[in-house]
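User: Before I run my own analysis I want an independent prediction to cross-check against. Here's the chain; please return only the structure tokens and, at the end, one sentence I can use as a sanity check.
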Amino acid sequence: MSSHSENSHGDDGQLAYQPAKFFFREKYAKLGVKGSFMPLAAQPAHVECADWLAHQTVEQYRIITSILLIIQEANKTTGKATCNPESCPQMSAGTHTYTWLDNHKQPIAVNAPQYISLVQRWMNSKIYDEKAFPTEPSPVVSASTYASGSVTTPTGESAIPAGPTTLRDALPALAGRDWIGKGAGFPESFLHDCRTCWRQMFRIYAHLYHSHWVEPFWHLSTDTKNFGYTDLNSCFVLFCTIAKLFRLLSDKDMETMQPLIEIWITSGIIPEDAARGACALVAQ
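Assistant: Structure tokens:
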């Protein structure tokens, strides 16, 4: 089993028909907070698009990691986590099950805790990789600065360097190709990796709803001090607003949770601009 990016894609399978879920009812679609999520989703005017997407990806991963602790914590009585290999022998969401790709890119079935662990390992390897998600600006080298660091004209004994480059410059860049984030030092694969991150995070949310909405989130809602289903809704609706606004996920990616998402779109909780993908990105 590997955490490499090529193994982070899952293949959809089908499970037996399941009855309608409580969380697909408008009564249970309410949120734990009030107000519009667009100010949290929209790209600020003076922030580069790739920088904003990287920030949102890291922030959404931080949120979902915190939520996962609720189902990963061992029960004091049983000694088992809510999500364990016995309770969740497949990584499923309703009628869908997700498989992992092994080192030979062959789909294999894994239980939900293992799948989630693999996703977390893969995402950690991406978002904390300075080459994949750069957090420092690319170094700028003055055209008048030579290899020695001198700004004077080199003598006959000095080597005249080629034009300035950076360690992040790749051959496609030198050939004149363009991509989202190129100017900010992001690799050509950034948008693809970003969408893969969001796809995997969505699958985790889908599993949380379909397999754990009642236990623990519904039961936790009886105490306002706990993280209940309305809080889960608040986190997920922000996630969906960002994903739709920039079209990071396709309709097929989101179909396991579409009834709930439609409730939020119809009610305006997910604004029209976000629902229609007003800031949709196209790979270049």
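Sanity check: The radius of gyration is 23 Å.
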